[in-house]
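Q: Here's a chain of 415 amino acids. Please give me its 3D structure as C-alpha coordinates.
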Amino acid sequence: MKRLFLLLALTQALVACGGGASVNEEQVLLPEGANVADLLVDSGPDGNGVNRLYTSVTICKPGSTTLCKTIDHVLVDTGSVGLRLLASEVPADLQLSAAKNTNGNVLLGCANFLDGSFAWGPLTIADVKLGGLTAADTTVQLVGHSEYDPFQYQCSTWGDPIITATDLGANGILGVGLSKQDCGSACEVQGRRNARNGKYFSCSNAACTSVAGTTLASNKQLQQVVARFPTDNNGFAIQMDSVPSAGAVTATGKMIFGLGTRSNNHFPALQVLATTTQGYLYGTLSSNSGLAGGSFSSTFLDTGSNGIFFDSYIPNCTYPNDSGFYCPFTDIAINVILGTAGTVQVRASFTLSNAAALFQKGNSALPTLGGALGAQGLLDLGLPFFYGKTVVIGIDGMPITGVGTGATMGPYYAL
Protein backbone atom coordinates (compact mmCIF):
# COMPACT_ATOMS: atom_id res chain seq x y z
CA MET A 1 0.00 0.00 0.00
CA LYS A 2 1.32 3.44 -0.96
CA ARG A 3 0.53 6.34 1.33
CA LEU A 4 -1.62 9.23 0.25
CA PHE A 5 0.65 12.19 0.89
CA LEU A 6 -0.97 15.62 1.15
CA LEU A 7 1.06 18.29 2.89
CA LEU A 8 -0.96 21.42 2.25
CA ALA A 9 -1.32 23.16 5.60
CA LEU A 10 -5.01 23.33 6.51
CA THR A 11 -4.81 27.03 7.39
CA GLN A 12 -3.59 29.37 4.69
CA ALA A 13 -3.32 33.07 5.60
CA LEU A 14 -1.79 35.68 3.33
CA VAL A 15 -1.45 39.20 4.68
CA ALA A 16 -2.23 40.72 1.86
CA CYS A 17 -12.39 33.62 -19.22
CA GLY A 18 -11.21 33.39 -22.72
CA GLY A 19 -8.11 32.15 -24.46
CA GLY A 20 -4.88 31.62 -22.57
CA ALA A 21 -1.28 30.62 -22.87
CA SER A 22 -0.38 26.95 -23.06
CA VAL A 23 2.10 25.09 -20.90
CA ASN A 24 3.96 22.20 -22.48
CA GLU A 25 6.29 19.72 -20.82
CA GLU A 26 9.88 19.99 -21.98
CA GLN A 27 13.35 18.98 -20.94
CA VAL A 28 14.38 21.90 -18.75
CA LEU A 29 17.96 23.18 -18.83
CA LEU A 30 18.81 23.18 -15.14
CA PRO A 31 21.00 26.10 -13.98
CA GLU A 32 23.84 26.32 -11.49
CA GLY A 33 24.82 29.11 -9.10
CA ALA A 34 24.95 30.27 -5.50
CA ASN A 35 21.20 30.90 -5.66
CA VAL A 36 20.41 27.32 -6.72
CA ALA A 37 19.59 24.27 -4.59
CA ASP A 38 19.45 20.70 -5.88
CA LEU A 39 16.14 18.81 -5.84
CA LEU A 40 15.71 15.03 -5.81
CA VAL A 41 12.85 12.57 -5.99
CA ASP A 42 13.71 9.12 -4.66
CA SER A 43 12.33 6.50 -2.26
CA GLY A 44 13.25 8.60 0.77
CA PRO A 45 14.40 7.68 4.30
CA ASP A 46 11.69 5.02 4.65
CA GLY A 47 12.48 3.43 1.25
CA ASN A 48 8.81 3.62 0.29
CA GLY A 49 8.42 7.16 -1.00
CA VAL A 50 6.57 8.11 -4.18
CA ASN A 51 6.66 11.61 -5.68
CA ARG A 52 8.36 13.17 -2.68
CA LEU A 53 10.52 16.16 -3.57
CA TYR A 54 13.61 16.55 -1.39
CA THR A 55 16.42 19.02 -0.84
CA SER A 56 19.21 19.42 1.71
CA VAL A 57 19.13 22.14 4.35
CA THR A 58 22.01 23.32 6.53
CA ILE A 59 21.23 24.78 9.95
CA CYS A 60 23.76 26.54 12.18
CA LYS A 61 23.90 28.18 15.56
CA PRO A 62 23.26 31.84 14.68
CA GLY A 63 26.49 33.50 13.63
CA SER A 64 28.55 30.28 13.65
CA THR A 65 30.24 28.63 10.69
CA THR A 66 31.29 25.51 12.61
CA LEU A 67 28.27 24.58 14.76
CA CYS A 68 26.29 23.42 11.75
CA LYS A 69 24.59 20.34 10.37
CA THR A 70 23.38 19.55 6.85
CA ILE A 71 20.14 17.57 6.83
CA ASP A 72 19.24 15.70 3.67
CA HIS A 73 15.85 14.48 2.45
CA VAL A 74 13.93 17.53 3.66
CA LEU A 75 10.58 17.65 1.86
CA VAL A 76 9.99 20.74 -0.30
CA ASP A 77 6.39 21.83 0.25
CA THR A 78 4.87 24.79 -1.61
CA GLY A 79 1.63 24.25 0.35
CA SER A 80 2.90 25.38 3.76
CA VAL A 81 5.27 27.96 5.23
CA GLY A 82 8.19 27.38 7.60
CA LEU A 83 11.05 24.98 8.20
CA ARG A 84 10.07 22.01 10.35
CA LEU A 85 12.80 19.50 11.16
CA LEU A 86 12.62 16.22 13.04
CA ALA A 87 14.06 16.86 16.50
CA SER A 88 16.09 13.66 16.13
CA GLU A 89 18.01 15.29 13.23
CA VAL A 90 19.08 18.35 15.23
CA PRO A 91 21.88 17.45 17.70
CA ALA A 92 22.13 19.23 21.03
CA ASP A 93 25.74 20.19 20.35
CA LEU A 94 24.55 22.77 17.82
CA GLN A 95 23.60 24.81 20.90
CA LEU A 96 20.48 26.26 19.33
CA SER A 97 18.47 28.52 21.62
CA ALA A 98 14.78 27.91 22.24
CA ALA A 99 12.37 30.58 21.03
CA LYS A 100 10.54 32.05 24.03
CA ASN A 101 7.70 34.43 24.78
CA THR A 102 8.03 37.68 26.73
CA ASN A 103 7.75 35.72 29.99
CA GLY A 104 10.73 33.56 29.07
CA ASN A 105 8.69 30.41 28.44
CA VAL A 106 9.23 28.08 25.46
CA LEU A 107 7.08 28.59 22.37
CA LEU A 108 5.65 25.64 20.44
CA GLY A 109 4.16 25.26 16.98
CA CYS A 110 1.40 23.18 15.40
CA ALA A 111 0.65 22.38 11.77
CA ASN A 112 -2.19 20.16 10.57
CA PHE A 113 -2.03 18.72 7.05
CA LEU A 114 -4.68 17.48 4.63
CA ASP A 115 -3.55 13.84 4.94
CA GLY A 116 -4.43 13.86 8.66
CA SER A 117 -0.87 14.10 9.94
CA PHE A 118 0.28 16.91 12.21
CA ALA A 119 3.58 18.48 13.29
CA TRP A 120 3.98 19.47 16.94
CA GLY A 121 7.05 20.69 18.76
CA PRO A 122 9.06 23.58 20.19
CA LEU A 123 10.46 26.51 18.25
CA THR A 124 14.15 27.33 18.05
CA ILE A 125 16.31 29.92 16.31
CA ALA A 126 18.91 29.03 13.66
CA ASP A 127 20.70 30.29 10.59
CA VAL A 128 19.20 28.38 7.64
CA LYS A 129 21.26 27.80 4.50
CA LEU A 130 19.93 26.73 1.10
CA GLY A 131 22.31 26.59 -1.82
CA GLY A 132 24.73 29.44 -1.16
CA LEU A 133 22.24 31.73 0.61
CA THR A 134 21.55 32.15 4.33
CA ALA A 135 18.41 33.17 6.21
CA ALA A 136 19.87 34.40 9.50
CA ASP A 137 18.13 34.12 12.88
CA THR A 138 15.15 32.23 11.52
CA THR A 139 12.49 30.48 13.58
CA VAL A 140 12.51 26.70 13.06
CA GLN A 141 10.18 24.06 14.52
CA LEU A 142 11.59 20.85 16.04
CA VAL A 143 9.02 18.13 15.41
CA GLY A 144 8.67 15.01 17.51
CA HIS A 145 10.54 16.36 20.55
CA SER A 146 9.92 13.80 23.32
CA GLU A 147 9.95 16.43 26.09
CA TYR A 148 6.86 18.11 24.63
CA ASP A 149 5.03 15.14 23.10
CA PRO A 150 2.71 14.78 26.15
CA PHE A 151 1.02 18.01 25.03
CA GLN A 152 0.57 17.09 21.37
CA TYR A 153 -3.19 16.75 21.88
CA GLN A 154 -3.20 20.55 21.86
CA CYS A 155 -2.39 20.31 18.14
CA SER A 156 -4.73 17.44 17.21
CA THR A 157 -6.86 14.90 19.03
CA TRP A 158 -7.47 12.62 16.04
CA GLY A 159 -4.62 12.90 13.51
CA ASP A 160 -1.32 11.04 13.21
CA PRO A 161 1.63 12.76 14.93
CA ILE A 162 4.86 13.14 12.99
CA ILE A 163 7.59 11.75 15.23
CA THR A 164 10.04 9.85 13.00
CA ALA A 165 11.28 9.83 9.40
CA THR A 166 9.04 6.82 8.80
CA ASP A 167 5.99 8.85 9.88
CA LEU A 168 6.89 11.70 7.54
CA GLY A 169 8.83 9.98 4.79
CA ALA A 170 11.38 12.76 5.21
CA ASN A 171 13.70 14.33 7.76
CA GLY A 172 11.76 17.57 7.77
CA ILE A 173 9.51 19.91 5.80
CA LEU A 174 10.72 23.05 4.04
CA GLY A 175 7.49 25.02 3.66
CA VAL A 176 8.00 27.55 0.87
CA GLY A 177 4.44 28.66 0.20
CA LEU A 178 3.19 32.01 -1.03
CA SER A 179 3.16 33.97 2.25
CA LYS A 180 6.04 35.39 4.27
CA GLN A 181 4.92 33.91 7.58
CA ASP A 182 3.09 30.85 8.76
CA CYS A 183 -0.16 32.67 9.55
CA GLY A 184 0.77 36.37 9.70
CA SER A 185 -1.71 38.81 11.22
CA ALA A 186 -4.26 36.04 11.83
CA CYS A 187 -2.06 34.75 14.68
CA GLU A 188 -1.22 38.15 16.12
CA VAL A 189 -4.69 39.01 17.45
CA GLN A 190 -6.37 37.37 20.41
CA GLY A 191 -9.81 35.88 19.86
CA ARG A 192 -12.95 36.82 21.78
CA ARG A 193 -12.37 34.19 24.45
CA ASN A 194 -8.67 33.30 24.45
CA ALA A 195 -5.39 33.52 22.59
CA ARG A 196 -5.76 30.14 20.87
CA ASN A 197 -5.24 30.33 17.10
CA GLY A 198 -4.42 26.63 16.64
CA LYS A 199 -0.92 27.40 15.38
CA TYR A 200 1.13 28.64 18.33
CA PHE A 201 1.35 27.74 22.01
CA SER A 202 3.55 28.50 24.99
CA CYS A 203 4.60 26.68 28.11
CA SER A 204 3.02 28.04 31.30
CA ASN A 205 6.31 28.04 33.18
CA ALA A 206 10.00 27.16 32.87
CA ALA A 207 9.30 23.51 33.69
CA CYS A 208 6.52 23.40 31.04
CA THR A 209 4.01 21.60 33.24
CA SER A 210 1.19 22.83 31.00
CA VAL A 211 0.68 24.46 27.61
CA ALA A 212 -1.79 27.07 26.35
CA GLY A 213 -2.52 28.78 23.05
CA THR A 214 -0.84 32.10 22.40
CA THR A 215 -0.75 34.95 19.94
CA LEU A 216 2.56 35.51 18.20
CA ALA A 217 3.97 38.46 16.27
CA SER A 218 4.56 37.81 12.58
CA ASN A 219 8.32 38.19 12.87
CA LYS A 220 8.41 35.49 15.57
CA GLN A 221 6.40 32.93 13.60
CA LEU A 222 7.78 30.29 11.26
CA GLN A 223 9.06 32.12 8.20
CA GLN A 224 9.20 31.68 4.45
CA VAL A 225 12.95 31.05 4.37
CA VAL A 226 13.42 32.48 0.87
CA ALA A 227 11.90 35.81 1.91
CA ARG A 228 14.54 36.08 4.65
CA PHE A 229 17.52 35.83 2.31
CA PRO A 230 19.45 39.13 2.08
CA THR A 231 19.23 38.90 -1.74
CA ASP A 232 17.26 36.80 -4.26
CA ASN A 233 14.28 36.92 -1.91
CA ASN A 234 11.24 37.99 -3.96
CA GLY A 235 10.35 34.44 -5.04
CA PHE A 236 11.77 31.33 -6.62
CA ALA A 237 11.35 28.84 -9.43
CA ILE A 238 11.13 25.07 -9.34
CA GLN A 239 12.44 23.40 -12.49
CA MET A 240 11.99 19.65 -12.87
CA ASP A 241 13.18 17.33 -15.61
CA SER A 242 10.58 15.36 -17.55
CA VAL A 243 9.74 11.84 -16.39
CA PRO A 244 8.43 9.05 -18.68
CA SER A 245 4.75 8.26 -18.24
CA ALA A 246 5.62 4.84 -16.78
CA GLY A 247 7.76 6.57 -14.15
CA ALA A 248 11.41 6.54 -13.15
CA VAL A 249 13.45 5.33 -10.20
CA THR A 250 14.55 8.92 -9.47
CA ALA A 251 14.04 12.43 -10.79
CA THR A 252 16.08 15.61 -10.41
CA GLY A 253 15.48 19.31 -10.48
CA LYS A 254 16.59 22.69 -9.20
CA MET A 255 15.19 25.40 -6.97
CA ILE A 256 16.33 28.81 -8.24
CA PHE A 257 16.04 31.65 -5.72
CA GLY A 258 15.21 35.19 -6.73
CA LEU A 259 13.25 36.47 -9.72
CA GLY A 260 14.95 38.85 -12.11
CA THR A 261 17.89 39.27 -9.74
CA ARG A 262 20.55 37.27 -11.65
CA SER A 263 21.17 36.02 -15.15
CA ASN A 264 19.80 32.57 -14.23
CA ASN A 265 16.41 33.62 -12.86
CA HIS A 266 14.67 35.53 -15.66
CA PHE A 267 11.52 33.83 -16.99
CA PRO A 268 9.99 36.24 -19.51
CA ALA A 269 8.00 33.59 -21.39
CA LEU A 270 5.93 32.53 -18.38
CA GLN A 271 2.39 33.72 -17.71
CA VAL A 272 1.79 35.24 -14.28
CA LEU A 273 -1.36 34.15 -12.42
CA ALA A 274 -2.21 36.22 -9.37
CA THR A 275 -3.88 34.19 -6.63
CA THR A 276 -6.65 35.11 -4.23
CA THR A 277 -5.66 36.34 -0.77
CA GLN A 278 -6.00 32.72 0.39
CA GLY A 279 -3.47 31.58 -2.21
CA TYR A 280 -5.86 29.93 -4.68
CA LEU A 281 -6.43 29.95 -8.42
CA TYR A 282 -9.61 29.02 -10.29
CA GLY A 283 -9.30 25.72 -12.14
CA THR A 284 -11.43 24.00 -14.76
CA LEU A 285 -10.94 20.36 -15.79
CA SER A 286 -12.23 18.48 -18.83
CA SER A 287 -11.59 15.04 -20.33
CA ASN A 288 -12.83 13.10 -23.35
CA SER A 289 -13.86 10.21 -21.08
CA GLY A 290 -16.32 12.37 -19.16
CA LEU A 291 -15.07 10.86 -15.90
CA ALA A 292 -13.12 13.97 -14.89
CA GLY A 293 -14.36 17.52 -15.21
CA GLY A 294 -15.78 20.52 -13.44
CA SER A 295 -14.76 23.78 -11.85
CA PHE A 296 -12.61 24.17 -8.76
CA SER A 297 -12.63 27.53 -6.99
CA SER A 298 -9.74 26.53 -4.71
CA THR A 299 -6.89 25.34 -6.94
CA PHE A 300 -3.31 25.30 -5.72
CA LEU A 301 0.12 24.03 -6.79
CA ASP A 302 1.59 21.83 -4.07
CA THR A 303 4.91 19.99 -4.30
CA GLY A 304 4.13 18.46 -0.91
CA SER A 305 1.36 16.32 -2.40
CA ASN A 306 2.47 13.15 -4.15
CA GLY A 307 -0.36 13.09 -6.68
CA ILE A 308 -2.88 15.28 -8.46
CA PHE A 309 -5.92 15.20 -6.19
CA PHE A 310 -9.51 16.18 -6.91
CA ASP A 311 -12.95 14.57 -6.77
CA SER A 312 -14.28 12.89 -9.91
CA TYR A 313 -16.00 9.77 -11.29
CA ILE A 314 -12.70 8.03 -11.97
CA PRO A 315 -12.68 4.57 -10.30
CA ASN A 316 -10.76 4.35 -7.04
CA CYS A 317 -8.22 1.65 -6.31
CA THR A 318 -9.35 -1.33 -4.28
CA TYR A 319 -9.64 -0.76 -0.54
CA PRO A 320 -7.47 -1.02 1.52
CA ASN A 321 -4.61 -1.48 -0.96
CA ASP A 322 -3.64 1.84 -2.58
CA SER A 323 -6.76 3.39 -1.11
CA GLY A 324 -7.33 7.03 -2.04
CA PHE A 325 -5.65 6.79 -5.44
CA TYR A 326 -7.36 6.50 -8.82
CA CYS A 327 -7.27 3.23 -10.78
CA PRO A 328 -8.85 3.94 -14.19
CA PHE A 329 -9.10 1.01 -16.63
CA THR A 330 -7.17 3.03 -19.24
CA ASP A 331 -5.12 6.22 -19.09
CA ILE A 332 -7.20 9.40 -18.91
CA ALA A 333 -5.94 12.62 -20.53
CA ILE A 334 -7.19 15.70 -18.72
CA ASN A 335 -7.09 19.33 -19.80
CA VAL A 336 -6.85 22.06 -17.18
CA ILE A 337 -7.45 25.79 -17.45
CA LEU A 338 -5.99 27.82 -14.62
CA GLY A 339 -7.53 31.23 -14.05
CA THR A 340 -6.41 34.17 -11.99
CA ALA A 341 -8.24 36.82 -9.99
CA GLY A 342 -8.49 38.85 -13.20
CA THR A 343 -9.02 37.42 -16.70
CA VAL A 344 -5.64 35.75 -17.30
CA GLN A 345 -5.72 32.05 -18.08
CA VAL A 346 -3.17 29.31 -18.68
CA ARG A 347 -3.92 25.98 -20.34
CA ALA A 348 -2.12 22.79 -19.38
CA SER A 349 -2.77 19.06 -19.34
CA PHE A 350 -1.92 15.92 -17.42
CA THR A 351 -2.62 12.19 -17.61
CA LEU A 352 -3.84 9.84 -14.89
CA SER A 353 -2.97 6.14 -14.93
CA ASN A 354 -3.90 3.11 -12.85
CA ALA A 355 -2.09 3.69 -9.54
CA ALA A 356 -1.94 0.01 -8.59
CA ALA A 357 -0.19 -0.82 -11.85
CA LEU A 358 2.20 2.12 -11.42
CA PHE A 359 3.21 1.03 -7.92
CA GLN A 360 4.08 -2.46 -9.13
CA LYS A 361 6.89 -1.01 -11.24
CA GLY A 362 8.77 0.11 -8.11
CA ASN A 363 9.47 3.66 -9.34
CA SER A 364 9.59 6.69 -7.07
CA ALA A 365 8.82 9.36 -9.71
CA LEU A 366 5.33 8.84 -11.14
CA PRO A 367 4.00 11.69 -13.31
CA THR A 368 0.56 10.10 -13.89
CA LEU A 369 -0.46 9.49 -10.27
CA GLY A 370 -3.64 10.98 -8.85
CA GLY A 371 -6.46 10.38 -6.44
CA ALA A 372 -9.59 11.61 -4.70
CA LEU A 373 -9.41 14.53 -2.31
CA GLY A 374 -12.77 14.32 -0.56
CA ALA A 375 -13.11 18.10 -0.49
CA GLN A 376 -15.52 19.82 -2.85
CA GLY A 377 -14.07 22.71 -4.83
CA LEU A 378 -10.41 21.80 -4.15
CA LEU A 379 -7.96 20.91 -6.91
CA ASP A 380 -4.51 19.94 -5.64
CA LEU A 381 -1.97 20.03 -8.47
CA GLY A 382 0.72 18.02 -6.70
CA LEU A 383 4.25 17.10 -7.69
CA PRO A 384 3.28 15.18 -10.89
CA PHE A 385 2.11 18.51 -12.33
CA PHE A 386 5.63 19.94 -11.90
CA TYR A 387 7.57 17.36 -13.93
CA GLY A 388 9.00 18.82 -17.13
CA LYS A 389 7.96 22.37 -16.21
CA THR A 390 9.25 25.61 -14.79
CA VAL A 391 6.90 26.82 -12.04
CA VAL A 392 7.49 30.17 -10.35
CA ILE A 393 6.27 31.07 -6.85
CA GLY A 394 5.94 34.81 -6.22
CA ILE A 395 5.95 35.62 -2.50
CA ASP A 396 3.20 37.79 -1.03
CA GLY A 397 3.97 41.52 -1.10
CA MET A 398 7.14 41.14 -3.17
CA PRO A 399 7.46 42.88 -6.57
CA ILE A 400 7.54 40.85 -9.75
CA THR A 401 10.65 41.26 -11.87
CA GLY A 402 11.99 39.15 -14.70
CA VAL A 403 8.81 37.08 -15.03
CA GLY A 404 6.42 37.28 -18.00
CA THR A 405 3.31 39.38 -17.91
CA GLY A 406 0.30 39.59 -15.62
CA ALA A 407 0.38 40.67 -11.98
CA THR A 408 2.91 43.16 -10.60
CA MET A 409 3.06 41.97 -6.99
CA GLY A 410 2.94 38.61 -5.22
CA PRO A 411 1.25 36.32 -4.30
CA TYR A 412 1.22 34.57 -7.65
CA TYR A 413 2.18 31.50 -9.62
CA ALA A 414 3.77 31.71 -13.07
CA LEU A 415 3.70 28.91 -15.67
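Q: Can you summarize the key feature?
A: The CA atoms of residues 234 and 398 lie 5 Å apart.
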